[in-house]
Design a protein that fits this description.
The chain is an alpha/beta fold and 261 residues long. It has one domain: 3-Layer(aba) Sandwich (Rossmann fold), CATH 3.40.50. 33% of the residues lie in helices and 21% in strands. It has ten helices and ten strands. The strands form two sheets. An eight-stranded mixed β-sheet has the order 1-2-4-3-5-6-9-10, sandwiched between helices. Helix 2 packs across helix 3. Pfam families: Abhydrolase_1. One of its GO terms (molecular function) is catalytic activity.
Length: 261
């Protein structure tokens, strides 16, 4: 089942219901992703509560903001979308990958009363050392793709995941997200840091770091020190998309957090 939520700045946001009952568990995808990329993980989490996923603005079936607002793609605005969803759902656990992980952290810092647990998968609060075109790999992938097999070939290691993030048009397959929007989002990451937000987080928090991570060396450890009651786990043999599969160690540590919160 799907339903929509209109954000306070007028963007229609798509919400996917994966099943389960009780306290919500909200899944937040990464850049270029969509809520339905979480299906395999969602099936494993329905025993913890009502599992829902949010298509971030400009992603999946969610709308795009009107042009002209430079903050419409900022991490703070993405977090505001999450907070507005939580105001509808009530206190919830947040499970975020990459972009979704940053939104989860910022939402938890703004509304600790609405967040019962936080899982952040391979994301930092300070990516200012990254090149400003952090979304350039998608532009270089060569759209349109002639087939889903071509999508898999263009994104080795995460090809099956990326086939969920495209749509078929007359000339082939295109990413659902507009590359200009993805670039605007990533550019915000390279120009802002969010260390201060960590001090306001009150929910039990799990930071999951990939072995081949985008997180600058040592930053995950420092983030864990700054967040009260935070656990940091590095999962061997994984890339940025740690949960893909889903990875058994990822499920183990996420289950453990949700079981105790």
């Amino acid at each position: 089942m799907r339903w929509s939520l209109r954000s306070s700045d007028g963007v229609d946001l798509e919400v996917v219901e994966f099943g389960g009952t009780g306290r919500p568990v909200v899944l937040l995808h990464g850049l270029t992703g969509r809520a339905t990329t979480w299906w395999a993980v969602a099936r494993e989490l329905v025993g913890h509560g009502r599992v829902v996923g949010l298509d971030a603005r400009g992603h999946g079936r969610s709308g795009r903001p009107e042009p002209g607002d430079p903050d419409a793609w900022s991490p703070g605005r993405m977090a505001a979308d999450v907070v507005e969803l939580l105001e509808r759902l009530g206190p919830s656990a947040l499970v975020g990958h990459s972009m979704g992980g940053l939104a989860a952290l910022l939402a938890a810092s703004r509304r600790p009363d609405l967040v019962t647990a936080v899982v952040v998968e391979d994301m930092a609060v300070d990516l200012t050392a990254l090149p400003s075109d952090a979304a350039g790999e998608y532009a270089s992938a060569g759209q349109p793709f002639a087939s889903l097999a071509a999508v898999r070939e263009a994104f080795p290691g995460v090809g099956d995941y990326m086939t969920e993030c495209v749509e078929e048009r007359d000339d082939g397959y295109h990413l659902l997200v507009d590359l200009a929007d993805a670039t605007a989002i990533a550019t915000h990451w390279t120009h802002t840091s969010h260390w201060d937000a960590l001090d306001a987080i009150r929910a039990p928090t799990l930071l999951i770091e990939a072995e081949d991570s985008i997180v600058p060396p040592g930053q995950a450890e420092e983030m864990a020190r700054r967040i009260s009651g935070c656990e940091h786990v590095r999962i061997a043999g994984t890339g940025h998309l740690v949960h893909d599969g889903p990875h058994p160690r990822y499920l183990e540590v996420v289950h453990a957090l949700l079981d105790r919160t």
